[in-house]
Amino acid sequence: MTKTLTIYPAIDMRGGRCVRLLQGDYNQETVYGESPFDMAKSFADLGASWIHMVDLDGAKEGSLVNDSYVLKAAKELAGVSIQIGGGIRSEKQVAHYLENGVARVILGSVAVREPAFAEEMIRKYPGHIAIGLDGKSGKVATDGWLKTSEWSVLDLGKYFADKGAEWFIFTDIANDGMLSGPNVSATAELARVTGKNVIASGGMSRLEDIVSLKEHQAAGIEGVIIGKALYENRFTLTEALTEAEGKA
Predict the structure, then answer these.
(1) Which residue in the list 55, 57, 67, 134 is annotated as catalytic?
(2) b vs e for 129-140, b when ≥16 Cβ sit within 10 Å of the residue's Cβ?
(3) Predicted TM-score of the model (pTM)
(4) Active site residue 12
């Protein structure tokens, strides 16, 4: 059997609600639900093994704002692993999540600004840290995509892979929220360059996108984060999970 591609249904949180932003623009928000936990439970009930949660308020403010919903999901949704990103800037915040049942913490902006801190977290919590690489014209964007660094996505990915990072989440900002399809080639290239697990994010719109990503599993694409396509009913989570299982 072909290895299953992990499906990560996404819950982006802002002001205690489930929202989606268009290309990371905080002024282009659509609200899809009033309760992040209820949304997480609905995904769990449909068979999700992982749920991807993002604290958008935290990403902008550099603090944990919507963490209560994350911890509730981690505690109460049996058999489901939670990964969280947004606003995580200190070991205290990393430990706050990991010690309360969250499976994986994403370090994004802070990994660019303070690589030594990210390296320490990778060493201290092996397998539980993912480096979030948000690409804007090949460069890494930070601070809720409001700023662009001098690092290229591939260079920063290789840097952290050499430091022991096992997990990367790659988002092409140009595609995020656009339902235009993921940047499969760039995601596969990051997987090849790092030699690690890469989770694709941004632009999912059709079940065929899952098929395209599965074709590059050998390169290291481990999973895909799906947000707007589910909320806009382009396909169901059940259909995505079935497609991700692949065929013999």
Answers:
(1) 134
(2) bbbbbbbbeebb
(3) 0.93
(4) yes
